[in-house]
User: Which sequence fits this backbone?
């Protein structure tokens, strides 16, 4: 596959379609099974609070993966992502209710680079707090 977005059609400041991703406790259980990350802070409320967290929190790598979906949906090619990194700034707190939490992600092209690549800066928040810092991807476009 190759990216469906042409490098020449993109300008610095181009905004990608924003997305909101719901996260429930059931989501965390499925992710734990798939990833093998069974740290109790991701499913055991009592344990999470004993270690100083406000409640169960989403896996950092899960949060990171949900955020990059904004970019992979935009390019229509996950392989177009050449580089991706974040800093984990705040946890996504997932209450034990029918709603869970939301991860809200926006992104924009921050720089046009060489070799048909662009740098995309992402903003990910949950409950009004920035949960990922320095969230950036380098993406190769068509």
Assistant:
């Amino acid at each position: 596959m190759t990216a469906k977005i042409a490098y020449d059609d993109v300008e610095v400041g181009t905004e990608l379609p924003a997305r909101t991703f719901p996260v429930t406790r059931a989501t965390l259980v499925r992710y734990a099974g798939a990833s093998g990350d069974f740290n109790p802070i991701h499913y055991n409320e009592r344990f999470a609070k004993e270690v100083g967290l406000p409640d169960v929190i989403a896996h950092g790598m899960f949060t990171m993966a949900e955020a990059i979906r904004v970019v992979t949906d935009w390019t229509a090619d996950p392989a177009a992502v050449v580089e991706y990194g974040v800093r984990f700034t705040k946890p996504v707190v997932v209450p034990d209710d029918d709603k869970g939490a939301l991860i809200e992600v926006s992104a924009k092209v921050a720089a046009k680079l060489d070799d048909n690549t662009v740098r995309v800066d992402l903003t990910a928040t949950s409950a009004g707090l920035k949960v990922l810092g320095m969230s950036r991807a380098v993406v190769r476009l068509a």
